[in-house]
């Protein structure tokens, strides 16, 4: 059997190998979007076993286990951790072709030095070896981050969050990794969801005052954003499953907010007016703070009502929205730009049909002397696959500037997912290497090295200015 995932994994030509070894492999990681727990980082959480760290919250794995016919009790149910791991081990061979197959073995190799293929027959030995290591020194959350050469971690945080653990981490001079929050005010926009009322109470607690008007809401959001800024936040994040754009006066939206506070049902039009007005307020706020605005668009979340009632969000029952994007997104960006208050913005869509639309639209708003002011976001979720990453990079190269791309992120809930950066860096170097060896690009190692270093690290360092 060939040495699986060997040193030239995904590097199919000599130029690719040279670029990866000399310019990509050792660059630090700036993980500017993830869902890791700042509490677990602060506490250097030690994981009981491989099931906790690998399967504890990873709905990517849960989805393929379901598709493989595994009973829910072995996924999110009450089966033992060992039985859940065996169920995953039985599934892994069936994932061949899905990046989970490569990621799983890459993680076993990079963190546990295990080169054995995971399957039902090897499950027990791998369970034993991984748990022995996890229960020893050097496998706490902080250790895994440090081993992965991570320099910055951007978690995903609600405006009402106390940021207790971010502050504790920043006071801890023994931990050399910067852990900063990202401002994710989705619940402020989702005015028709039943989460809105309870969340408003949490926000009132956080700002120490009642929120009884739309003006109060905006003041509270601004106050929290300024607090987040003090704690090092330089990026916001929005899940815009659809991009609404319905202009309305401040008074109209204030009336809509009052109607919601009275518990009255809002129309879709009223919801969209609220979302549009709030997004415009926040976009201008981000521009004034110098933040980056991330828009995660066209997810179709929580499709399975029965399972949503049972398990809640982010449990593997999401898919892609195939709606239209161009007009509303252009109106949002243009309205902000007209006041010279369009922030640095990263556009993600869960539907790759939107890549050329977003890449072309970006070109209408680049400028202000900021290289890559608008970014085509890294291949997201169902697209962070070999094909998806290549499609995103090729679209950006064809329509915009790949050289100014701020590169990969893990977007993960697992501390073992940093191998996704390696996977991406290998793909990037192979893409450039193929262009060189096909004669489509010059064999100019200085230029190629500058571009590779930029996409792997230097562009993100300059773009996010985390300090
Ligand atoms: O940030 C998001 O909305 C998504 O990334 C979502 O959290 C999803 O669960 C995910 O992690 C996809 O990688």
Automatic annotation (TrEMBL):
It comes from the Bacteria. Its EC number is 5.3.1.12. Gene3D superfamilies: Metal-dependent hydrolases (3.20.20.140), uronate isomerase, domain 2, chain A (1.10.2020.10). The keyword Nucleotide-binding does not apply. One of its GO terms (molecular function) is glucuronate isomerase activity. SUPFAM superfamilies: Metallo-dependent hydrolases. It is an enzyme of class 5 (isomerase). InterPro entries: Metal_Hydrolase, Uronate_isomerase. Pathway: Carbohydrate metabolism; pentose and glucuronate interconversion. It catalyses: D-glucuronate = D-fructuronate; aldehydo-D-galacturonate = keto-D-tagaturonate. Keywords: Isomerase. The keyword Isomerase applies. It holds the Pfam family UxaC. Belongs to the metallo-dependent hydrolases superfamily. Uronate isomerase family. NCBIfam families: PRK02925.1 (NF002794). This is Uronate isomerase. It comes from Alicyclobacillus fodiniaquatilis. The lineage of its organism: Bacteria, Bacillati, Bacillota, Bacilli, Bacillales.
């Amino acid at each position: 059997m060939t040495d699986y995932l060997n040193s030239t994994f995904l590097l199919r030509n000599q130029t690719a190998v040279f670029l990866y070894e000399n310019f990509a492999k050792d660059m630090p990681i700036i993980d500017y979007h993830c869902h890791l727990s700042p509490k677990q980082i602060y506490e250097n959480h030690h994981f009981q076993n491989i099931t906790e760290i690998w399967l504890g919250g990873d709905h990517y794995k849960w989805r393929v286990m379901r598709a493989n016919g595994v009973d829910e009790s072995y996924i999110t149910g009450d089966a033992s951790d060992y039985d859940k791991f065996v169920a995953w081990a039985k599934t892994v061979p069936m994932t061949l072709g899905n990046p989970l197959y490569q990621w799983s073995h890459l993680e076993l190799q990079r963190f546990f030095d295990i080169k054995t293929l995971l399957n039902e027959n090897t499950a027990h030995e791998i369970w034993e070896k991984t748990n022995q290591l996890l229960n020893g020194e050097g496998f706490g959350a902080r250790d895994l981050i440090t081993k992965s050469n991570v320099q910055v971690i951007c978690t995903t945080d609600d405006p009402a969050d106390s940021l207790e653990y971010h502050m504790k981490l920043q006071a801890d001079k023994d931990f050399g990794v910067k852990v900063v929050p990202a401002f994710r005010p989705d619940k402020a926009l989702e005015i028709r969801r039943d989460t809105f009322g309870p969340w408003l109470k949490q926000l009132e607690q956080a700002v120490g005052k009642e929120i009884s008007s739309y003006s109060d809401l905006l003041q509270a959001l601004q106050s929290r954003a300024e607090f987040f800024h003090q704690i090092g936040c330089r990026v916001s994040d929005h899940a815009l499953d659809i991009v609404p754009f319905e202009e309305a006066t401040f008074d109209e939206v204030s009336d809509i907010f009052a109607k919601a506070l009275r518990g009255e049902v809002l129309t879709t039009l009223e919801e969209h007016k609220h979302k549009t007005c709030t997004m415009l307020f926040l976009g201008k706020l981000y521009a004034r703070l110098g933040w980056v605005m991330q828009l995660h668009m066209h997810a179709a979340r929580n499709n399975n009502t029965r399972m949503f009632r049972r398990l809640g969000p982010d449990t593997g029952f999401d898919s892609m929205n195939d709606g239209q994007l161009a007009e509303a997104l252009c109106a949002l960006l243009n309205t902000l730009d007209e006041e010279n208050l369009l922030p640095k913005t990263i556009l993600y869509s869960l539907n790759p049909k939107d890549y050329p639309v977003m890449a072309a639209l970006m070109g209408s708003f680049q400028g202000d002397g900021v290289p890559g002011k608008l970014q085509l976001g890294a291949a997201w979720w169902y697209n962070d696959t070999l094909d998806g990453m290549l499609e995103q990079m090729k679209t950006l190269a064809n329509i915009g500037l790949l050289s100014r791309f701020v590169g990969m992120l893990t977007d993960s809930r697992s501390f073992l997912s940093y191998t996704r950066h390696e996977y991406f860096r290998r793909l990037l170097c192979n893409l450039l290497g193929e262009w060189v060896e096909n004669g489509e690009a010059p064999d100019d190692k200085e230029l190629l090295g500058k571009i590779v270093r930029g996409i792997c690290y230097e562009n993100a360092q300059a773009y996010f200015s985390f300090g």
